[in-house]
């Protein structure tokens, strides 16, 4: 007798076969590929404690050169924008009128000197005659008064000579400070007036130079704590370039109530001329050095809902999260506290694709050479 298969039995067998095929397919699917990441090593280093700010470069001195006497400008002794030394000749005015005035004053001085000497001799003779009563007391007093008047005239002549000589010196205008000249506002042949409000040229002293910056007022206790020490200030030009190192020279005597900041100034040698008056600069004021701080690259820090954390690479090449607290950042690095230990490898690039336990493939180690410069 032939047995007929039931339709329900055929459907069950088909379902079982499909499930078996699906189970085999699931069992044979490859694991997800490891995530490529970049890592760096957590280290303990001496790290400076710094206050960062944006500053403005200003010259140590600024002088607007003006004429003290008038006259025709005969010669300009420099080119605009040139650096000049203190005492260097900048302008020469027509000195002939002042030389003539000096000669006239010297002649008057010679005349008055002779008259004063003669009057003094007369006073001496009349004194002797008055003692012998050959002349009256009134005559003697008159001669004596004349001698005193000639001495006063002589003193005035000497003052006139000094003034004429000074005016002659003013006809040659010299640099009062060492610095860089600005744009020239006059040309040779122009008539220069001593009363003109417009300066002939402006000189800025840029070696050394100052950088003015402000820090929040809550940092004032730290500044007061380290006042008296040689505090290092580093300034990097806003457009880029090598940072310059200087020292803190000024702390303002009051907090700006409008901004809640306190004004500071740093002085820089500026031998290379990288700091330019009026330019912006990124400033870092170093207050002290923390000798044994745990640091990682700032790019390793991930902000999560429960706080900051980093991914640490374990021995089996898997990533694990470690909660950290960022004390502060210094340059490209962060000073941290938490579950990270010195020597741990932390992920600095590729965190977005990582989860707890994700397998990783290390592409390259981040450059930690800059840690030595902290």
Descriptive account of the structure:
The protein is an alpha+beta fold. It has four domains: 35-44 and 293-373, conserved putative lor/sdh protein from methanococcus maripaludis s2 fold (Beta Barrel); 51-60 and 205-290, Efflux pump adaptor protein, beta barrel domain (Elongation Factor Tu (Ef-tu), domain 3), CATH 2.40.30; 67-94 and 172-198, OB fold (Dihydrolipoamide Acetyltransferase, E2P); 95-170, Orthogonal Bundle (Helix Hairpins). The protein has helices at residues 7-28, 96-131, 137-170, 220-225, and strands spanning 35-41, 43-65, 71-76, 83-84, 89-93, 172-174, 179-181, 191-192, 201-216, 232-237, 244-251, 261-268, 280-297, 302-304, 307-313, 319-330, 333-338, 345-349, 360-365. Strands 2-9-12-11-10-13 form a six-stranded antiparallel beta barrel. A four-stranded antiparallel β-sheet has the order 6-5-3-8. It is elongated and about 140 Å long.
How many helices? The count is: 4
Q: So, the CATH homologous superfamily of the largest domain?
A: Efflux pump adaptor protein, beta barrel domain
CATH hierarchy: architecture of the largest domain = Beta Barrel
- Shape estimate: elongated
Features of the shown structure:
374 residues; alpha+beta; conserved putative lor/sdh protein from methanococcus maripaludis s2 fold; Elongation Factor Tu (Ef-tu), domain 3; OB fold (Dihydrolipoamide Acetyltransferase, E2P); six-stranded antiparallel β-barrel; disordered N terminus; disordered C terminus
